[in-house]
Design goal:
InterPro entries: Cro/C1-type_HTH, DUF5753, Lambda_DNA-bd_dom_sf. The chain is α/β, with parallel strands linked by helices. The protein is built from twelve helices and six strands. The longest helix has 17 residues.
Length: about 290
């Protein structure tokens, strides 16, 4: 599995770029000091490559960072960026793009998104996951399927994360197309259980769920699903995730993220209210009985 940037690594890279630009230095200037290529400096600033403590100290000297607390904070960030997450134990089966998603989710403060064809991954039951895998990869060995189901279950632990005062530290706000409810995945029993699980999840105060009905007609996200992953620190840029059949695309430029933020708000405004959405889910579940 190819290495993927952690949130800490992205945060460190963003801060180093800010410091460099504040000093009026170019990538080439920094590369000369580090005795490396300017492309390596660029990878560090993009969070695609780590930086050794010795090189980081050189950079902090070059950028004239004298405050010891700031220096220590950035050095700690560099060390923590090397820590491996729980998903690395599944590295033999996880595509790098999925590992990157798990890395981002692990340190995020929430997710907003729209689902056109499937129940959101954070709300899927094990049987639903198995049915989806069977539909997409019917040749996958049973052992690998079991591992992917475990990954999905461990991923969902972010919904149970709490802070020092017992408050939820991850919030999920998602709009689901009515077509997701109407598509029977894994048979009637599996789908009914999935819808019941969806209703139970929606009852949690940090989960906001709405349904976009067929009656809404054409909408801004008619071309596909998307998710916006948010972070607690202002220096951490939100990330838009677009899934394809074989990989995922990550958008981090603010102008791109803002497009999807507006799209999400438009879709949420067109969706049913929370109460109406739960009623539709409950009715659909009863129809499967």
């Amino acid at each position: 599995m190819a290495p993927n940037p952690t949130v800490r690594q992205r945060r460190l890279g963003t801060e180093l770029r800010r410091l460099r630009e504040a000093r009026g230095l170019s990538l080439e200037d920094v590369a000369v000091r580090l005795e490396c290529s300017d492309s390596k400096v660029s990878r560090i600033e993009l969070g695609r490559s780590g930086v050794r403590p010795v090189d980081l100290r050189i950079l902090l000297d070059l950028y004239e960072v004298a405050d010891e607390r700031e220096r220590d904070s950035l050095l700690t960030l560099a060390r923590e960026a090397k820590k491996r997450g729980w998903w690395h134990s599944y590295s033999s089966i996880l595509p790098s793009s999925y590992a990157e998603l798990l890395s981002l989710e692990a340190e995020s403060s929430g997710m907003r998104g729209f689902e056109l064809s499937l129940i959101p991954g954070l709300l899927q039951t094990p049987d639903y996951v198995r049915a989806v895998i069977a539909a997409v990869r019917d040749d996958m060995p049973a052992e690998q399927v079991d591992m992917l189901v475990r990954v999905r279950q461990e991923r969902q632990a972010v919904l149970d994360r709490v802070g020092a005062q017992g408050e939820a530290t991850f919030r999920l706000s998602v709009v689901i197309s009515e077509s997701v409810l109407r598509t029977v995945v894994g048979g009637r029993e599996t789908m009914r259980a999935q819808l019941e699980h969806l209703m139970a999840a929606a009852a949690r105060p940090h989960v906001r769920l709405q349904i976009l009905p067929f009656a809404a007609g054409a909408h801004p996200a008619i071309e596909g699903s998307f998710a916006i992953i948010g972070f607690p620190e202002l220096s951490d840029l939100d990330v838009v995730v677009l899934d394809t059949h074989t990989s995922s695309l990550y958008l981090e430029e603010p102008e791109h993220v803002s497009v999807y933020e507006r799209m999400f708000e438009d879709i949420r405004a067109a969706a049913l209210s929370y109460g109406e959405s739960l009623s539709m889910i409950e009715l659909t579940a009863k129809e499967l009985s």
